[in-house]
């Protein structure tokens, strides 16, 4: 009887000792990924309202949409009219009759590796004012006093509007709106007050005259 009791006690101690042994936890690690892709836009940008740039402008025959598409675009440029006048025999300056002429450039290229926008440069050139074979000798155009407006608040550093005086057909394409590196990301408007764009004619000549303005947008800022 005593032997049986001793054996039972030994077995119980063995079981208790085993259950008290520590169990070591194991840790494993797995990885997954998250991704995002950006592509350059290929659509057009609507002309924004120059008085309320957060709103799309209604169709405006004086400032028509260019229809240009892509990541860097000139979205609108003004068709300028200087009206109808009786001839005068001395030099005369005529102001554009446009109510609200403006330019709009959109830069949707994003930032470069340094975290800054890349900049751009808009230039304008003009031909002679002609009526069939006739031309207005010495006519020059001036575009001054523009203000710069952004499409949305918080777009970053603004581009710069440049005054142009006495532009004629003999001039090279001249900078009118430019963004240095770090400027001009998003949609920006160069808005002219009424009656500041002008045409000076040294001597009038009977006829209906028109000129072509060529707007050239470069992906490089002004050097």
Structure description:
It is a single chain. The chain has 223 residues and is mainly β. The protein has a domain at 72-218: Sandwich (Immunoglobulin-like), CATH 2.60.40. 8% of the residues lie in helices and 28% in strands. β5 and β6 form a beta hairpin. Residues 1-16 have low confidence and may be disordered. Residues 1-24 form the signal peptide.
Alpha-beta content class: mainly beta
Give the overall shape. Answer: elongated
Number of strands: 14
Q: What is the H/E string?
A: HEEEEEEEEEEEEEE
Termini separation comes to: 109 Å
| Biggest sheet details | 4 strands, antiparallel
Low-confidence stretches: 1-16
What is the percent of helical residues?
under 10%
Reading side by side through the largest sheet, how are the strands ordered? Answer: 1-3-12-8
- What portion of the residues fall into strands of 2 or more residues? 25-35%
Q: CATH topology of the domain at 72-218, which one? A: Immunoglobulin-like
Number of helices: 1
Q: Provide the CATH architecture of the domain at 72-218.
A: Sandwich
Q: Roughly how many Å is the radius of gyration?
A: 36 Å
Mean pLDDT figure: 90
CATH class type of the domain at 72-218: Mainly Beta
